[in-house]
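Design review, sub-item: ligand-bound model
Attendees: FS, YL, KQ
YL presented the inputs for the adenosine-5'-diphosphate complex:
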Amino acid sequence: MTPTHPATSRFALVGGVLGVAAGYYGACQVGLGLRLPGATPSILWPPNAILTSALVLAPPRRWPVLLLAALPVHLLVEHAAGWPLPLILSLFVTNCLEAVIAAGGIWLFSDSPRDFDTFPRLTAFIVSAVIAAPLLSSFADAAAVTIFRGEPYWTVFLTRTFSNALAQLTFVPAVVGTVGALPHWRESRWTSRTTEALVLATGFGVVWVGGLDAELAQLPALRIVTTQTPLALQLPFMLWAGVRFGPVGAGVTLLATSLLSAWALVHGIGPFATLDPTATVPALIISLLVVATTLMYLSTLVEERRHTQHALAARLEFEELLSRLSGAFVQLPSDQMDAALDKWLGQIGAVLRVDLLALFVAGDEACAFRATYWWSERRIGPAPEIVPARDFPWTFDMLLERRVLNLSSLAALPDAARADQTSLKRLGLNAALAMPLAGKDSFLGVLACGSFAERRWPDELKANVRLVSEVLANALSRKRTEDALRTSELMKSAILQSLQTGVAVVDRLGSVVAVNEAWMIVARQSGAMDVAVGGNLLMSCEAAARMGDPLARALAPGIAAVLSGSQPEFSLDHRSDLGPAPRWWTLQVLPLGSPQSGAVIAQSDVTDVRRAELEAQRSRQELAHVARVSTVGELTASIAHQLNQPLSAIMTNAQAARRVLDSPSPDFAKLHAILVDIVKDDRRASDIIKRLRELLRRGELAMTRVNLTKLIREVADLVIGDAIVRGVTVSLDVDHHPVFVRGDSVQLQQVVLNLLQNAMEAVGDQPPGLRVVTLKCRALDGEAVRVSMHDTGPGLPAGGEDAVFEPFYTTKPTGMGMGLSIVRSIVEAHGGTIHAANQERMGAVFEVLLPVDAGQAS
Ligand code: ADP
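KQ shared the predicted structure:
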């Protein structure tokens, strides 16, 4: 990881400079100590490898500083060796050249310069640092040594190339691996691996000590083994280290082996004591090079395999988690989701191997985060209070735009993200990865991973977090939908319960889906409708209908018709006498939404409306009665005149009869004829009185089959006297065939009487010859009958066609304005219509249409 924070970076640079100086110094001492007496090149020259390691560990921009850090040490050490300054400087340049070629090659060709754990990475290292760098730099180095010290060029070249190659091969992986692991050593715990490493180191040490021991070296078998097959005893340990501890383990054992071998050779101890050093040195270097390269490749391959296995295991673990996670949330009811999210977050965090995992769930508005699910590796307790929009404004804006936050260190945050940085510090986080959870068209929340240390977020981890976030987004989206549905259900049920009207909702088969309390209160009184949710209302009504329940008999077919779609709606009025006072109900069946998806049955109490209607009807009848009384009052003169005729005739006949009786021989035949006349006149008089009494009768509406033509003639008879007095000609144009309507004869008489009287009054101001009222009655088509009243009066006032029917509309000084209003209410109560208009030439016409009664006389 590259520390980029300025403070960290400065600290790393100082550490690097000091490390390079100290390492270079130590390495020079080792290198100088591993020279054969009298030779300038040493068997193993590690300072260049130390420089290479430093350059591999540091970013290229730091290289000049690090290289310069080695200069004073170089000058100091080599000056002490008594070499001329030009040579010292030349050697420094060649050393630097080697390090730069080595590290440059590694940085150029390796995808991860600090790792040697894959075949391509190791090859990049071997080619750049072990082959190219020592080889190329040795040309210059050998030249300098030859010039300033007079040593043979190619001997120096070969010795330096090999010793440097060996140093690169053994030092760089060991040093880079060890320094790279340093930041994590505090986190490491004692494990079986630590014990294994310790056992390995001890065994390795024992073998070396044994191999170098002068007395043991005297053992013939041991001497043969160590001299004939050098490193035979160390090889198992090196293999062990390579196989079990990877390239770094192999590097460390190789380093120790090289150092110890070179040391033993220089000092002529152990197996090399009896051998000629000039021949042994190249042999040892070559064999070490071969063994080291082989071992490095072997350990790399093993490491690569181990990595693959780990990656596979991690992948499998993740896949399994993902499938369990999706499985768990697919069927989970939304109210259990909170607890499940809490539980699952820990498992996800453990599998993703992050220090902290947090899930922020957006509320209805994207900015209002409602709940936070929190899991931390350090188990720092309940979720701290976080308001994303306040604590992480910069990050939050980014996430709202559906972008991912990928933060490897706090230093990478821009200045605009000060608040975010403070919040991250407060939480102890140094790196974070946050992904928006996006629904189809909404922002559902954020899934965030945190790390206490700075770290990069590899692509695979990002992909895994994305997959988890998709599963969680689906779950949250479903939860949101279900919550909304539940709220809407609650709302619907609350609305249903608040209704005064009883409501039952049935499905297409008639089963009750929902009812409210108002419905149940009424339904409990009527057996047929007392069906709870889940029961079948239609079947219950049909059963009650078969038992003879009149309400059920009317309702069942209505419900069935609406449910089957054959009728758009159905309504029914019924009266219930179950309570202390009678109540009226209206039952209405309406289809639900799409056809055949059920129906709503509403039962409303219309008792008050019905009472008001009855009251109004009664008032109307009272009023009509009053109107009739007043009409009759107006007709008094003409009625007296009409009655006068039969009464005078009776009187005359009675006197004639007395005279006949007074005669000595009364003529009985004549007397009989007189009496017949008297009876006839009396009947005429009593007919007039009967009709008058009928008109004055007050009473309930009595609907019967009425002969309309006869009724019209009788009313005309009643006003005929009045007409004569007013000088009005009343002309009747009435069908000879009787036309029957269904209605109340008194009320229908009132209609004709009122229209006639209005017409006669209208023509009153016309000259005597022009006072004509024509009353027509025509059956239209067997369905309706039209009664029309034509007059030759002044006609209706302008715009009065509708107004004349309004109550209290009058143009007469003594008028009440109720006549036509009563007429219209009577006509409408008989299922008919009335309208008024002006005739073309003069006068008004009033037309009444009534339905014909085609049935039998009742
Ligand atoms: P009223 O006779 O007490 O005025 P009505 O309701 O019978 O009450 O009539 C209302 C009004 O309608 C009358 O005042 C009159 O202006 C008008 N009207 C009624 N019949 C006729 C008609 N045949 N010709 C002209 N106007 C009429």
